[in-house]
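We emphasize that the prediction below concerns an isolated chain of 142 residues; any contacts that depend on oligomerization or on bound cofactors are therefore not represented. The input was used exactly as deposited, without trimming of termini.
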Amino acid sequence: MDYNIIIKDKFPTIKQSMSLHRGTANVLELDFKQIVLDNYGENSFLENDEIGVIKNEVKRKYNSDFYEDVIEKFGIKTNIDFKDLYYYQEKVEIENLINVNIEKPVSLLKINNKIVLINGYHRALISLLKGNQSIEGFLLEL
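Result of the prediction step, given as a C-alpha cell string:
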C-alpha cells in the first residue's frame, strides 16, 4: 500500500520543509498535530520542556538513553486509544512511511497521569490512516 499517495489525497496539511539535521534539502512532512486536533478536538501535545523532563527521568531511573529498549524490556504490552494519548512530535516525514514495520508496538510512557507516545509516530500515523481508534504499545509507568 502506498501511504504517500493516501496521505497526499487525504490530508491537506502536508507541506514541504527544510530538514537540515538530516542533510536533506526538501522533505515532505505531515502536520501530525493538526491530524490529532482534527480527530480528537483537543490539544494533547506536550511542551518541549515537558518531554525533556520525561526523557531525563527515564535516563535517571534506568541509566539508559535508549528509551525504546527500556520501555520494551520493562513495559507492559497494551492497547490504548489515541484519544487517551499525549504527544510531543508535531511533524512526521512521509517519505519514511514505506519502511515502517506497522506490526511493531509503539513505545509509551506514563508519567503524572499522562500516557505519552515516545516512539512510533509513523506507526501511529498509519494506524490513524487505517481508521483505527487505538494502537498497540509497550507501556512503562514512571
